[in-house]
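Tokens in:
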């Protein structure tokens, strides 16, 4: 009974976040609009991961936001490089601060941790030869010609844009020379307090198009999870994280139906 109650409480909280997410200012998303009814995901499909609505298309269409990095993506720890799927809560990973300085931070939660999911990734290669893969709806630090550096959807990064690589303890801009898509296995998104993460030597973030591209908002939204992480033993925190991820995977289809019905009018 307690477990059931916790799942219901979690699902209700998720619903609130989904409503808030759909109300944010519209921005282009790198997903194709559904051309007819059969292209629209079923509720069973939608229940496998968080869902958003792209209101920039006419009519609006559904977009999935399972935004992560694949198995085999490399993060840097004090002990050296490590595959992202081997990370655990409490591990330290390299991040980039607003000043551009690279520092280590602890992983306090995972929003995705699925070794079996097969997904399409945006794969970007820079002039230095470094390659990073992320789902199209995941934000990386990038700079388009004539613009300031900002968090940019991986699926929107193009040849000629700059990504930021780590050299020593700071970042350096490198031009993207190839942008393609690839199919890979695994979905992993470890979270740090700053919302920053360095993956495959490139400055990225833990933020996805599930919410606005704001490190401050990420810190605010995840504050309860950060507090629990610091209070609970790692083993308990990991068990709780696994429980929450199970809740995400079993979101009640009635909640999804209630959320998507208004856009059909």
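Residues out:
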């Amino acid at each position: 009974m307690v477990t059931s109650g916790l799942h219901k409480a979690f699902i209700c909280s998720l619903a609130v976040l989904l409503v808030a997410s759909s109300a944010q200012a519209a921005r282009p998303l790198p997903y194709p609009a559904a051309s007819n009814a059969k292209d629209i995901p079923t509720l069973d499909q939608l229940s496998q991961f968080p869902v958003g609505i792209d209101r920039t298309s006419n009519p609006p269409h559904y977009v999935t936001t399972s935004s992560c990095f694949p198995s085999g993506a490399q993060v840097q720890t004090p002990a050296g490089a490590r595959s992202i799927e081997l990370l655990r809560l409490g591990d330290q990973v390299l991040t980039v601060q607003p000043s551009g300085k690279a520092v280590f931070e602890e992983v306090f939660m995972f929003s995705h941790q699925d070794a079996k999911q097969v997904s399409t990734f945006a794969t970007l290669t820079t002039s230095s030869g470094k390659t990073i893969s992320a789902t199209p709806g995941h934000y990386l630090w990038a700079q388009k010609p004539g613009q300031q550096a900002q968090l940019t959807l991986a699926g929107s990064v193009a040849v000629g844009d700059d990504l930021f690589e780590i050299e020593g303890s700071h970042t350096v801009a490198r031009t993207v020379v190839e942008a393609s898509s690839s199919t890979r296995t695994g979905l992993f998104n470890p979270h740090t307090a700053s919302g920053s993460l360095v993956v495959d030597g490139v400055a990225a973030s833990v933020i996805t198009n599930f919410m606005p591209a704001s490190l401050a908002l990420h810190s605010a939204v995840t504050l309860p999870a950060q507090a629990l992480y610091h209070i609970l033993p790692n083993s308990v925190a990991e068990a709780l994280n696994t429980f929450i991820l199970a809740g995400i995977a079993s979101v009640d289809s009635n909640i999804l139906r209630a959320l998507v019905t208004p856009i059909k009018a």
